[in-house]
Amino acid sequence: MNGYSIRDVQRTLGLSRSMILGLVESRYVTPKIGPRRSYRFTFSDLVVMRTAQELIEAKLPARQVSHTLKRLRKQLPEDVPFGGLRIRAAGDRIVVQEGARQWEARSGQYLLDLAVSAEDGELCMLPTAKPAGGSAEQWFARACEMEDEGDAGAVAAYERAIDADPSFADAFVNLGRLLHQQGRLSEAEAVYRRGISQCQSDALLRYNLGVLLDEMGRQPAALQVYREALALQDDFADCHYNIALLYEASGHTRAALRHLNAYRRLQSG
User: Which regions in the chain score pLDDT beneath 70?
Assistant: First the structure.
C-alpha cells in the first residue's frame, strides 16, 4: 500500500509520535490502515498535520483550529506531485497554492506569497516574493511586516536582508530574537555570533546573546558577553540589571550591588 508511515511523517515533518497520534485521534487526519494495522498517510494528510502543528503552536483556539483544518481537508486533493502544493499558516489564515492558483483556505480568496513547500519528499520553508529593488532595507521592512503577520517566511526575509548587507546589525538582532522566540536556540546563537563578527561595535547583539545563553544555562558565558556589551555601551541599563542578577546568584553580593546601583541611577536619570 502506498502512503507515508508514522516514521515517514516524523522524519519529513519533525513531529513527535504523540502529536501525530493526537491529530489522528482528533480526526484532523484520517489515515488508511495498512499491513499489520499500521497507519498510512497521504500527502494531503502531511499538509494538514504540518498546518495543525503551526496553528496549535501559535496558541489559536481549538475550535478555530478545528474549523479551519476541516475546511482545508475538504479542499485538498488526496495526492499531488511533490512540489505541486505549497501551504503556510499566517495567523489564523491558511494559504494554499496548487499549481498557479493561490488561495486562502477558508474564504477561497486568491492571495500571493507562500512559505512552505514540498520538495523531494520533504516540506521546507521558502522565502516569499522579493520586494521591489531587493535592498537590505526593503528585505528588512518586509521581514518585519511578515513577522507581525505571523508569517513563517520572516526568517528567510531577514536572511535575505543580511545577504544584501552583511553589516546590517538590526537584521541580525531581529532574526536572532525571532529564532529564540521559536525555540531554535542553537540557530539563534549562531546568528548572534555571526552578527557580532560582522558588527563588532553593536552592544545589543551581545546583550541578546547574553539573554539567550542565560536561558540555556550557560551563565559564565552570558556574563562574559554582558560585560562586552557594557564595554561598548556603559549606560545599558538592562545589561547592568542582568549582570547584577548573575552576580547575586553566584554569591558575589558586592559586585551585584554595584551593577544594581548603576541600573537604578540610569533608570532614575
Answer: 1-2, 58, 60, 68, 71-134, 151, 269
Cβ partners under 8 Å of residue 193, min gap 6 = 209
Distance of CA 110 to the CA centre of its chain: 25
Number of neighbours of residue 111 by Cβ within 10 angstroms: 15
Q: Could you give the domains of the chain?
A: 6-125 (1.10.1660), 166-268 (1.25.40.10)
Q: How would you class 94 by CB atoms within 10 Å of its CB: exposed for 0-12, middle for 13-18, buried for 19 or more? A: buried
With residue 203 as reference, give the H or E element that holds it. Answer: helix 203-215
Percent of the chain exceeding pLDDT 90 equals 36
In angstroms, the CA 47 to CA 218 distance is 37
pTM, two decimal places? 0.54
As a 3-state breakdown, the chain gives helix, strand, coil percent values, each rounded to 5, of 60, 10, 30
Q: What pLDDT was estimated at residue 104?
A: 56
Residues contacting 70, CB < 8 A, separation 6+: none
**pLDDT value at position 94?**
55
Give the closest residue to 126 by CA, choosing from 118, 137, 134. 118
In DSSP notation, 243-261 reads: HHHHHHHTT-HHHHHHHHH
CB 104 within 8 A of CB 72: no
Are 66 and 48 contacting, i.e. CB atoms less than 8 angstroms apart? no
